[in-house]
Design a protein that fits this description.
Rossmann fold, 201 residues, globular, four-stranded mixed beta sheet, alpha/beta
């Protein structure tokens, strides 16, 4: 059973429905016991980094998430769920993240004249072979909504990049950790393929 972490923010039901569409059983929960027993864990997210970290702390979810990742079972972060894995974010000041992947979250440079947030379909270039992208053509388009992007310290953890004014990291992978900046649940057939792939990792 895949468990989608409920911390009071985000597109939880749409992620759950995406898994259901591809035949992967999924529940939404904030119960630490349910999270610890999951076969796969998904941390989705829509909203501001500091508020999300505050909610994870308020619901006592930080340690269960860290323990789950440490267990070696598959973990998927989506959008803000990717950013929360990092050491810190500069969104509304400097705020600590889960500190699972070394690196920072940075804001797009508004002086480039880009519309912020970066919203809509964009091309994704795979930089690393990962089971999450199995059966998906390199250069496929996925749906993004974000104002911040991740900058991992270790280049070997970069799974995919995209371009919006600059080339930025839009997916990471390290061992059992998979995380994407775009929204698979909003990315039609190829996004659903990602959810299906995660369900069989």
């Amino acid at each position: 059973m895949v468990v989608v972490v409920d911390y009071g923010m985000g597109n939880l039901r749409s992620v759950q429905k995406g898994f259901e569409k591809v035949g992967v059983p999924a529940v939404v929960s904030r119960d630490p016991h349910v999270i610890r027993k999951a076969d796969g864990l998904v941390l989705p997210g829509v909203g501001a980094f500091p508020e999300c970290m505050k909610n994870l702390g308020r619901f006592d979810l930080v340690e269960p998430i860290r323990e789950f990742i440490g267990s070696g079972r598959p973990f998927l972060g989506i959008c803000l769920g990717l950013q929360l894995l990092f050491d810190e974010s500069e969104e509304f000041g400097i705020h600590e993240g889960l500190k699972i992947i070394p690196g920072k979250c940075k804001g797009f440079d508004r002086s480039m004249g880009l519309k912020i947030p970066h919203m809509g379909w964009n091309q994704v270039i795979f930089r690393k072979k990962t089971p999450l992208f199995e059966g998906i053509e390199d250069g496929s388009h996925f749906y993004f909504v974000h104002s911040y992007y991740v900058a991992p310290e270790n280049g070997s953890e970069v799974a995919a990049t995209s371009v919006y004014g600059i080339e930025f990291v839009c997916a990471v992978n390290r061992d059992n950790i998979f995380a994407v900046q775009f929204h698979p649940e909003k990315s039609q057939e190829k996004g659903l393929r990602i959810l299906r792939n995660f369900g069989v990792i």
